[in-house]
Amino acid sequence: MFDTLSDRLTGVFDRLRGRGALNEQDVREAMREVRVALLEADVALPVARSFIDKVTEKAVGQQVLKSVTPGQQVVKIVNDELVAMLGGDEVAPLDLDARPPVVVMMVGLQGSGKTTSTAKIARLLKEKQGKKPLMASLDVNRPAAQEQLKVLGEQTGVATLPIIVGQQPVDIARRAIEAAKLQAVDVLLLDTAGRLHVDEALMAEMKAVASVTTPTEVLLVVDSLTGQDAVNVAQSFSDEVPLTGVVLTRMDGDARGGAALSMRAVTGKPIKFAGTGEKLDAIEAFHPGRVASRILG
Ligand code: GDP
Protein backbone atom coordinates (compact mmCIF):
# COMPACT_ATOMS: atom_id res chain seq x y z
CA MET A 1 0.00 0.00 0.00
CA PHE A 2 1.21 3.52 -0.87
CA ASP A 3 4.48 2.11 -2.23
CA THR A 4 4.55 3.93 -5.56
CA LEU A 5 3.27 7.17 -4.06
CA SER A 6 5.83 6.93 -1.31
CA ASP A 7 8.68 6.34 -3.78
CA ARG A 8 7.61 9.24 -5.94
CA LEU A 9 7.33 11.64 -3.03
CA THR A 10 10.61 10.52 -1.53
CA GLY A 11 12.26 11.30 -4.86
CA VAL A 12 10.81 14.81 -4.95
CA PHE A 13 11.71 15.50 -1.35
CA ASP A 14 15.25 14.19 -1.60
CA ARG A 15 15.85 16.62 -4.42
CA LEU A 16 14.33 19.48 -2.44
CA ARG A 17 16.36 18.71 0.64
CA GLY A 18 19.50 18.26 -1.43
CA ARG A 19 19.48 21.87 -2.56
CA GLY A 20 20.70 24.58 -0.26
CA ALA A 21 18.54 27.51 -1.27
CA LEU A 22 15.04 27.33 -2.75
CA ASN A 23 13.07 29.88 -4.68
CA GLU A 24 9.37 30.02 -5.36
CA GLN A 25 9.81 28.43 -8.75
CA ASP A 26 11.55 25.40 -7.20
CA VAL A 27 8.68 24.91 -4.80
CA ARG A 28 6.06 25.23 -7.52
CA GLU A 29 7.88 22.73 -9.67
CA ALA A 30 8.14 20.25 -6.82
CA MET A 31 4.44 20.69 -6.10
CA ARG A 32 3.59 19.94 -9.70
CA GLU A 33 5.39 16.63 -9.30
CA VAL A 34 3.59 15.94 -6.03
CA ARG A 35 0.30 16.66 -7.76
CA VAL A 36 1.03 14.15 -10.51
CA ALA A 37 2.06 11.57 -7.93
CA LEU A 38 -1.19 12.07 -6.01
CA LEU A 39 -3.32 11.78 -9.14
CA GLU A 40 -1.48 8.65 -10.19
CA ALA A 41 -2.24 7.23 -6.76
CA ASP A 42 -5.94 7.80 -7.54
CA VAL A 43 -6.47 10.74 -5.24
CA ALA A 44 -9.61 12.58 -6.34
CA LEU A 45 -8.77 15.60 -8.48
CA PRO A 46 -10.35 18.33 -6.31
CA VAL A 47 -8.70 16.83 -3.25
CA ALA A 48 -5.26 16.81 -4.88
CA ARG A 49 -5.76 20.34 -6.14
CA SER A 50 -6.76 21.74 -2.80
CA PHE A 51 -3.88 19.91 -1.11
CA ILE A 52 -1.32 21.39 -3.50
CA ASP A 53 -2.81 24.87 -3.14
CA LYS A 54 -2.58 24.74 0.62
CA VAL A 55 0.97 23.42 0.66
CA THR A 56 2.16 25.90 -1.96
CA GLU A 57 0.64 28.83 -0.17
CA LYS A 58 2.50 27.96 3.02
CA ALA A 59 5.71 26.86 1.35
CA VAL A 60 6.40 29.90 -0.81
CA GLY A 61 6.35 32.23 2.19
CA GLN A 62 9.55 34.14 2.89
CA GLN A 63 9.96 32.47 6.26
CA VAL A 64 10.36 29.12 4.58
CA LEU A 65 12.41 30.18 1.60
CA LYS A 66 14.81 32.28 3.68
CA SER A 67 15.27 29.66 6.37
CA VAL A 68 18.46 27.63 6.77
CA THR A 69 16.76 24.39 5.71
CA PRO A 70 14.01 25.32 3.25
CA GLY A 71 13.73 21.81 1.77
CA GLN A 72 13.20 20.35 5.20
CA GLN A 73 10.55 22.94 5.96
CA VAL A 74 8.64 22.23 2.78
CA VAL A 75 8.65 18.52 3.57
CA LYS A 76 7.28 19.30 7.03
CA ILE A 77 4.49 21.38 5.51
CA VAL A 78 3.61 18.49 3.20
CA ASN A 79 3.59 16.11 6.14
CA ASP A 80 1.30 18.36 8.18
CA GLU A 81 -1.11 18.83 5.29
CA LEU A 82 -1.11 15.11 4.62
CA VAL A 83 -2.07 14.43 8.22
CA ALA A 84 -4.81 17.06 7.90
CA MET A 85 -6.03 15.46 4.68
CA LEU A 86 -6.22 12.10 6.44
CA GLY A 87 -8.25 13.59 9.26
CA GLY A 88 -5.94 15.33 11.72
CA ASP A 89 -3.75 14.09 14.54
CA GLU A 90 -6.41 12.35 16.52
CA VAL A 91 -7.74 8.84 16.16
CA ALA A 92 -11.52 9.02 15.80
CA PRO A 93 -13.08 6.50 18.20
CA LEU A 94 -16.54 5.01 17.84
CA ASP A 95 -19.12 7.24 19.41
CA LEU A 96 -21.00 5.08 21.89
CA ASP A 97 -22.28 7.96 23.94
CA ALA A 98 -26.00 7.28 23.79
CA ARG A 99 -28.59 5.36 25.72
CA PRO A 100 -28.07 1.63 25.12
CA PRO A 101 -28.61 -0.16 22.90
CA VAL A 102 -26.35 2.15 20.90
CA VAL A 103 -26.97 1.42 17.23
CA VAL A 104 -24.07 1.16 14.79
CA MET A 105 -25.28 0.85 11.22
CA MET A 106 -22.89 -0.52 8.61
CA VAL A 107 -23.46 0.53 5.01
CA GLY A 108 -21.61 -0.01 1.76
CA LEU A 109 -21.57 -1.90 -1.49
CA GLN A 110 -21.62 -5.66 -1.74
CA GLY A 111 -18.13 -7.10 -1.49
CA SER A 112 -16.70 -4.05 0.28
CA GLY A 113 -16.08 -6.07 3.43
CA LYS A 114 -19.15 -4.90 5.31
CA THR A 115 -20.11 -8.17 6.97
CA THR A 116 -16.53 -8.97 7.94
CA SER A 117 -16.03 -5.46 9.34
CA THR A 118 -19.27 -5.71 11.33
CA ALA A 119 -17.97 -8.88 13.00
CA LYS A 120 -14.51 -7.38 13.53
CA ILE A 121 -15.90 -4.28 15.25
CA ALA A 122 -18.31 -6.34 17.37
CA ARG A 123 -15.38 -8.49 18.44
CA LEU A 124 -13.30 -5.41 19.33
CA LEU A 125 -16.13 -4.00 21.42
CA LYS A 126 -16.50 -7.25 23.28
CA GLU A 127 -12.82 -8.11 23.74
CA LYS A 128 -11.27 -4.68 24.21
CA GLN A 129 -14.05 -2.62 25.69
CA GLY A 130 -15.99 -5.21 27.66
CA LYS A 131 -19.20 -4.34 25.85
CA LYS A 132 -22.11 -6.63 25.15
CA PRO A 133 -22.73 -6.45 21.41
CA LEU A 134 -25.48 -7.95 19.28
CA MET A 135 -25.23 -8.26 15.50
CA ALA A 136 -28.12 -8.43 13.06
CA SER A 137 -27.98 -8.90 9.32
CA LEU A 138 -30.54 -6.95 7.33
CA ASP A 139 -29.21 -8.27 4.05
CA VAL A 140 -32.07 -10.14 2.48
CA ASN A 141 -30.77 -9.67 -1.07
CA ARG A 142 -27.67 -11.77 -1.02
CA PRO A 143 -28.43 -15.41 -0.33
CA ALA A 144 -26.50 -16.64 2.71
CA ALA A 145 -25.58 -13.14 3.92
CA GLN A 146 -27.49 -13.62 7.15
CA GLU A 147 -25.99 -17.05 7.60
CA GLN A 148 -22.50 -15.60 7.03
CA LEU A 149 -22.94 -13.13 9.89
CA LYS A 150 -24.22 -15.90 12.12
CA VAL A 151 -21.10 -17.97 11.44
CA LEU A 152 -18.86 -14.97 12.15
CA GLY A 153 -20.77 -14.44 15.39
CA GLU A 154 -20.10 -18.01 16.38
CA GLN A 155 -16.41 -17.56 15.61
CA THR A 156 -16.13 -14.42 17.71
CA GLY A 157 -18.52 -15.34 20.48
CA VAL A 158 -20.82 -12.44 19.63
CA ALA A 159 -24.58 -13.05 19.62
CA THR A 160 -26.52 -12.61 16.40
CA LEU A 161 -30.23 -11.99 15.99
CA PRO A 162 -31.95 -15.27 15.09
CA ILE A 163 -32.82 -15.41 11.40
CA ILE A 164 -36.49 -15.37 10.37
CA VAL A 165 -36.61 -16.32 6.73
CA GLY A 166 -38.61 -13.88 4.61
CA GLN A 167 -38.62 -11.02 7.09
CA GLN A 168 -37.85 -7.64 5.51
CA PRO A 169 -35.04 -5.27 6.59
CA VAL A 170 -37.09 -2.66 8.45
CA ASP A 171 -38.92 -5.39 10.37
CA ILE A 172 -35.67 -7.15 11.16
CA ALA A 173 -34.28 -3.83 12.40
CA ARG A 174 -37.29 -3.33 14.70
CA ARG A 175 -36.97 -6.86 16.01
CA ALA A 176 -33.23 -6.30 16.58
CA ILE A 177 -33.91 -3.21 18.68
CA GLU A 178 -36.47 -5.09 20.78
CA ALA A 179 -34.11 -8.02 21.28
CA ALA A 180 -31.25 -5.69 22.18
CA LYS A 181 -33.38 -3.98 24.81
CA LEU A 182 -34.59 -7.25 26.30
CA GLN A 183 -31.09 -8.67 26.44
CA ALA A 184 -29.51 -5.49 27.87
CA VAL A 185 -27.22 -5.21 24.89
CA ASP A 186 -24.80 -2.25 24.88
CA VAL A 187 -24.21 -1.98 21.14
CA LEU A 188 -26.40 -3.23 18.31
CA LEU A 189 -24.54 -3.60 15.01
CA LEU A 190 -26.72 -3.64 11.91
CA ASP A 191 -25.18 -5.14 8.79
CA THR A 192 -27.31 -3.64 6.03
CA ALA A 193 -27.69 -4.95 2.50
CA GLY A 194 -25.19 -3.99 -0.15
CA ARG A 195 -25.59 -4.01 -3.90
CA LEU A 196 -23.18 -4.02 -6.76
CA HIS A 197 -23.95 -0.37 -7.52
CA VAL A 198 -25.39 2.51 -5.63
CA ASP A 199 -29.08 2.68 -6.53
CA GLU A 200 -32.26 4.26 -5.31
CA ALA A 201 -33.70 1.13 -3.76
CA LEU A 202 -30.57 0.63 -1.69
CA MET A 203 -30.61 4.22 -0.46
CA ALA A 204 -34.33 4.11 0.31
CA GLU A 205 -33.88 0.95 2.33
CA MET A 206 -31.01 2.45 4.26
CA LYS A 207 -32.97 5.57 5.10
CA ALA A 208 -35.95 3.49 6.23
CA VAL A 209 -33.71 1.41 8.51
CA ALA A 210 -32.05 4.55 9.89
CA SER A 211 -35.41 6.11 10.63
CA VAL A 212 -36.60 3.18 12.76
CA THR A 213 -33.28 2.64 14.57
CA THR A 214 -31.80 6.18 14.96
CA PRO A 215 -28.21 5.00 14.73
CA THR A 216 -25.50 6.80 16.67
CA GLU A 217 -22.93 5.67 14.13
CA VAL A 218 -23.44 5.11 10.42
CA LEU A 219 -20.21 3.67 9.10
CA LEU A 220 -19.53 3.45 5.40
CA VAL A 221 -17.40 0.45 4.50
CA VAL A 222 -15.26 0.94 1.40
CA ASP A 223 -12.66 -1.18 -0.28
CA SER A 224 -9.42 0.77 -0.51
CA LEU A 225 -8.38 -1.26 -3.55
CA THR A 226 -11.13 0.29 -5.65
CA GLY A 227 -9.45 3.71 -5.85
CA GLN A 228 -11.53 6.32 -7.64
CA ASP A 229 -14.61 4.10 -7.46
CA ALA A 230 -14.37 4.09 -3.69
CA VAL A 231 -14.36 7.86 -3.77
CA ASN A 232 -17.45 7.96 -6.00
CA VAL A 233 -19.24 5.48 -3.78
CA ALA A 234 -18.39 7.55 -0.72
CA GLN A 235 -19.72 10.65 -2.40
CA SER A 236 -23.04 8.97 -3.29
CA PHE A 237 -23.54 7.54 0.18
CA SER A 238 -22.66 10.72 1.98
CA ASP A 239 -25.12 12.65 -0.17
CA GLU A 240 -27.90 10.29 0.89
CA VAL A 241 -27.33 9.01 4.40
CA PRO A 242 -25.88 10.87 7.39
CA LEU A 243 -22.55 9.08 7.68
CA THR A 244 -20.53 9.40 10.85
CA GLY A 245 -17.38 7.63 9.74
CA VAL A 246 -15.64 5.35 7.29
CA VAL A 247 -14.12 1.88 7.52
CA LEU A 248 -11.45 1.30 4.88
CA THR A 249 -10.94 -2.35 4.14
CA ARG A 250 -8.11 -4.20 2.40
CA MET A 251 -5.49 -1.81 3.67
CA ASP A 252 -3.27 -4.91 3.67
CA GLY A 253 -3.46 -4.96 -0.14
CA ASP A 254 -1.39 -2.99 -2.60
CA ALA A 255 -3.83 -0.15 -3.15
CA ARG A 256 -2.31 3.00 -4.54
CA GLY A 257 -3.77 4.90 -1.65
CA GLY A 258 -6.07 7.39 -3.35
CA ALA A 259 -9.16 6.15 -1.58
CA ALA A 260 -7.57 6.53 1.83
CA LEU A 261 -6.30 9.98 0.97
CA SER A 262 -9.53 11.31 -0.52
CA MET A 263 -12.08 9.83 1.85
CA ARG A 264 -11.98 12.46 4.55
CA ALA A 265 -12.26 15.37 2.15
CA VAL A 266 -15.05 13.73 0.13
CA THR A 267 -17.23 12.63 3.04
CA GLY A 268 -16.18 15.20 5.62
CA LYS A 269 -16.13 12.30 8.06
CA PRO A 270 -13.24 10.57 9.78
CA ILE A 271 -11.84 7.21 8.78
CA LYS A 272 -12.42 5.31 12.01
CA PHE A 273 -11.05 1.88 11.19
CA ALA A 274 -8.72 0.17 8.75
CA GLY A 275 -9.28 -3.47 7.83
CA THR A 276 -5.94 -5.19 7.45
CA GLY A 277 -6.75 -8.78 6.56
CA GLU A 278 -9.34 -11.50 6.36
CA LYS A 279 -8.97 -12.67 9.95
CA LEU A 280 -11.43 -11.33 12.48
CA ASP A 281 -8.77 -9.58 14.52
CA ALA A 282 -7.38 -7.82 11.45
CA ILE A 283 -8.74 -4.36 12.14
CA GLU A 284 -7.10 -1.25 13.56
CA ALA A 285 -8.04 2.21 14.62
CA PHE A 286 -7.01 4.54 11.80
CA HIS A 287 -4.05 6.76 12.73
CA PRO A 288 -3.65 9.64 10.24
CA GLY A 289 -0.17 10.48 11.55
CA ARG A 290 1.12 6.94 11.16
CA VAL A 291 -0.29 6.64 7.68
CA ALA A 292 1.29 9.96 6.70
CA SER A 293 4.67 8.77 7.99
CA ARG A 294 4.30 5.58 6.01
CA ILE A 295 3.67 7.57 2.86
CA LEU A 296 6.52 9.98 3.44
CA GLY A 297 8.90 7.17 4.37
P1 GDP B 1 -19.69 -7.67 2.10
O1 GDP B 1 -20.35 -8.23 0.86
O2 GDP B 1 -19.45 -6.20 1.98
O3 GDP B 1 -20.38 -8.02 3.36
O4 GDP B 1 -18.22 -8.29 2.12
P2 GDP B 1 -17.61 -9.43 3.04
O5 GDP B 1 -17.50 -8.98 4.45
O6 GDP B 1 -18.31 -10.71 2.78
O7 GDP B 1 -16.11 -9.48 2.47
C1 GDP B 1 -15.79 -9.88 1.16
C2 GDP B 1 -14.42 -10.54 1.18
O8 GDP B 1 -13.42 -9.59 1.52
C3 GDP B 1 -14.29 -11.66 2.19
O9 GDP B 1 -13.57 -12.71 1.61
C4 GDP B 1 -13.49 -11.03 3.33
O10 GDP B 1 -12.71 -11.98 4.03
C5 GDP B 1 -12.61 -10.07 2.59
N1 GDP B 1 -12.17 -8.94 3.40
C6 GDP B 1 -12.93 -8.10 4.15
N2 GDP B 1 -12.17 -7.17 4.74
C7 GDP B 1 -10.88 -7.41 4.37
C8 GDP B 1 -9.61 -6.78 4.65
O11 GDP B 1 -9.50 -5.77 5.36
N3 GDP B 1 -8.51 -7.33 4.07
C9 GDP B 1 -8.59 -8.44 3.27
N4 GDP B 1 -7.46 -8.91 2.75
N5 GDP B 1 -9.76 -9.05 2.98
C10 GDP B 1 -10.88 -8.55 3.53
From TrEMBL:
Reaction catalysed by this enzyme: GTP + H2O = GDP + phosphate + H(+)
Protein topology in the membrane: Peripheral membrane protein
- EC number in record: 3.6.5.4
Give the GO cellular component terms, alphabetically. plasma membrane; signal recognition particle
Which keywords appear in this protein's UniProt record, sorted alphabetically? Answer: Cytoplasm, GTP-binding, Hydrolase, Nucleotide-binding, Ribonucleoprotein, RNA-binding, Signal recognition particle
Q: Name one GO molecular function term.
A: GTPase activity
Q: Does the keyword GTP-binding apply?
A: yes
Q: Tell me which residues make up the SRP54-type proteins GTP-binding domain.
A: 270-283
Q: Give the subcellular location.
A: Cell inner membrane; Cytoplasm
GO BP, sorted A to Z: SRP-dependent cotranslational protein targeting to membrane
Binding positions (GTP): 108-115, 191-195, 249-252
UniProt domain comment:
Composed of three domains: the N-terminal N domain, which is responsible for interactions with the ribosome, the central G domain, which binds GTP, and the C-terminal M domain, which binds the RNA and the signal sequence of the RNC.
Of which family is this protein a member? Belongs to the GTP-binding SRP family. SRP54 subfamily.
Subunit details: Part of the signal recognition particle protein translocation system, which is composed of SRP and FtsY. SRP is a ribonucleoprotein composed of Ffh and a 4.5S RNA molecule.
State what this protein does: Involved in targeting and insertion of nascent membrane proteins into the cytoplasmic membrane. Binds to the hydrophobic signal sequence of the ribosome-nascent chain (RNC) as it emerges from the ribosomes. The SRP-RNC complex is then targeted to the cytoplasmic membrane where it interacts with the SRP receptor FtsY. Interaction with FtsY leads to the transfer of the RNC complex to the Sec translocase for insertion into the membrane, the hydrolysis of GTP by both Ffh and FtsY, and the dissociation of the SRP-FtsY complex into the individual components.
This protein is called what? Signal recognition particle protein
* Origin species: Croceibacterium xixiisoli
Q: What is the lineage of its organism?
A: Bacteria, Pseudomonadati, Pseudomonadota, Alphaproteobacteria, Sphingomonadales
